[in-house]
Amino acid sequence: MLFPGQSEPSLLHKCSSSYPIGIFDSGVGGLTVLRELRKQLPHESVVYFADTARLPYGSKSPTEIIEFVYQILTWMRSQQVKMVIMACNTSSALALDILRPHFDFPVLGLILPGARAAVKHGKHIGVIATEATVKSNAYAQAMQETQPNAKIWQIACPEFVPLIEGDRLADPYTIQVASNYLEPLIQDQIDTLVFGCTHYPHLKGLLSQVLPYPVNFINPAAYVVKAAVKELEILGLRHTNLELAVNNTFTRFYVSGDPQQFAKISSRWLNKMPSVEQVNLSHVELLS
After folding, report:
1. Crossing angle, helix 111-121 and helix 138-146, to 10 degrees?
2. Which of 88, 138, 207, 221 does the annotation list as catalytic?
3. Which of the following CATH numbers is that of domain 111-219: 3.40.630.30, 3.10.450.30, 3.40.50.1860, 1.10.357.20?
């Protein structure tokens, strides 16, 4: 079934290797994916979109998430991207399989790459994620398909995203919240912890202090970018003209909310104050 105003997608996305890669999230969480992309694909340009006007995604209904993602992917298409990475676990869990077939560029999600990495590193696996991602059971299902004997515990951590977006990493309250969330996983003696939300790697240092023993931290961002590298190479869309790429590599930042707020918070991880443009998605037709 095609969505309103959408034509049948072509079998082969007609684009150039010089086109940018799209990354989107509800906020600054997707910067963890951007960071990995800069490590593994340093010669690619990026269009980064943060849906800050509607965060957090984790407390939204599946229908709302699908509508939001449809709007964002439609806007990304207007930016002539050659690929989109859903740098949002909630979107990956609820919208990826539904919307991916209806766009003529590759759309990658975090769940499967992260799940496969987790079962390679541990047998007692904890997943911390948003309420929506936990309710979807997407991580547990993906892990059990790969490793049926894996023991998996999932914890919803709804306060983490607002605390990170509020730039409260050093707040004692954040440490207390983290301790409360991790206590059941500590009791279950997990050996591996999956960041089931792209915001959560920003808390890695804090979580390492809360955990009483070392665990394997799995950041799905690293593994979805590995998948992106392979996909681009298969499609012949990886930027191979390195001299041209170095001269033209850049990241354009867009938000649906306050550009200044996003610039201020993201500068902590970008080591600079980015230029950020506001985008109004209200003109994009919703699914209904």
Report:
1. 50
2. 88
3. 3.40.50.1860
User: Which CATH topology does 21-109+222-278 take?
Assistant: Rossmann fold (3.40.50)
| Count of helix runs (H) and strand runs (E) in the chain | 13, 10
- Residue 15 is among the residues annotated as catalytic for this protein: no
According to DSSP, residue 124 is labeled: E
Segment 29-49, tens digit of pLDDT = 999 999 999 999 999 999 999
For the chain, residues classed under CATH 3.40.50.1860 are 21-109+222-278, 111-219
**Which position among 28, 110, 185, 197 bears the catalytic label?**
197
Instruction: Note the pTM of the prediction, 2 decimals.
Output: 0.91
d(CA 268, CA 249): 21
Digit-coded pLDDT (tens) for 142-193: 999 999 999 999 999 999 999 999 999 999 999 999 999 999 999 999 999 9
State the Cα–Cα distance between residues 260 and 175, nearest whole angstrom: 27
Cβ atoms of residues 51 and 26 within 8 Å: yes
Closest to 161 in 3D by CA, of 178, 142, 176: 178
Q: Which two tokens stand for residue 253?
A: 């930042």
Active site residue 197: yes
**Alpha-carbon gap, residue 192 to 115, rounded angstroms:** 11
